[in-house]
Fold these 2 entries.
Entry 1:
Amino acid sequence: MTAEIINLNKVRKARERADREREAHENRLKYGQSKVERSLADAQQRKTQGELDGARRDDNGPSNDADDFDPSPAS
């Protein structure tokens, strides 16, 4: 009877590589977004910002509020 000789270093490295790949896959599912999803989110954000900028009121009229109120007592 002959036993199959295995290199324990190769087995250990293969197991660690598989563990890292499994963890990377879980992280991609958990945190990752595809390029299409990122570009869609960017486009939606730009559209929303454009709508907000378009609805902005310009308050650049002359402000004479400082002239209306004089804190010094009139003599």
Note: The radius of gyration is 33 Å.
Entry 2:
Amino acid sequence: MRRLAIRLCIWTATALAVCSAGRLAYGQSQQQVPPEGGEAAAEPPAELPSTGAPAEVQSAPTPTETVRPQGERWKDILVLPRRAVLKAKRVEVVPMYHFNFNNPLIRHHGIGAQINYFLSEALWLGLEGTYYFADQSNSSTGTYFLIGVQDKVVPAVNKLIFSALLDFGYVPAQGKFALFNRKVVHWEGYVTLGVGTFMTQVIPVKPSDPAFTNISAMFNVGVGSRLFINRWLALNAFLKMYGYPDTFEPVANAAFNRDTMPPAGGGAGGGCANYFRGLTPGTDAFENAYSQCRKDNGNTTLVLDVVFGIGMSFFLPPKFEYKLPR
């Protein structure tokens, strides 16, 4: 029986191969051979099969047809754009304002500007200059007066006049976000380090005492962020710490005064007596010597001012072009 079944299968396959040798593939009709000198008649296109759906469904627009084009953009299709601003080999001009908030005796409001040149997209070198306005509260409820009442000694206070620094900056992070799910806004965060110089002026405890100034080195470290509005304008916010050695007047030692003679009970003269030799009290030379005496015998302390500031970044030239590898 097995041999009979195998032979039957072989005969059936042979018969099917012979029958289909002179015919075309299934589902295709033979083309009619055109007569000599004539052209074959074009075959009419096939009709699409009916889906059986209602007419209003078949005539409904497709999703692509419902999108309204606006020039080369599509309103209903949001695409994340590439980096909005290129900064390499461009100059950034930043008018800025900042104030310190960690000094309980005096607050400085600084107004200045910063000019940066971008060596690359992430690294820049810049110059910073600031002029300061002092805001000191001497009222009976102010910190300055209350500390004097508590410690029985009025604290020494200096005010900043100006500062000038050379800054180095680096951008370690950048990104974008959707503002109200409508507009893509680009931003970047940066760190900065600077060195330079500054000038301060003593605020005398006694109004009759002359003030003296200090000029020394200064450094700063900080972090900040730029929020790009367009290709040449950005909102700049930063948090920095300025450190500098400042010399305060010797208010705790009453010996440094204008006395030139020993007291009635004997002993040495005032702490500045050596500065007054050969000088007449009341003259400019005498007052200058008194100011130098107080400065030489003052207390030098490292001051750390933490400031918060804002500014507007203007990039020049305002236009740039993308240069792709290909």
Note: Residues 11 and 17 are 10 Å apart (CA to CA).
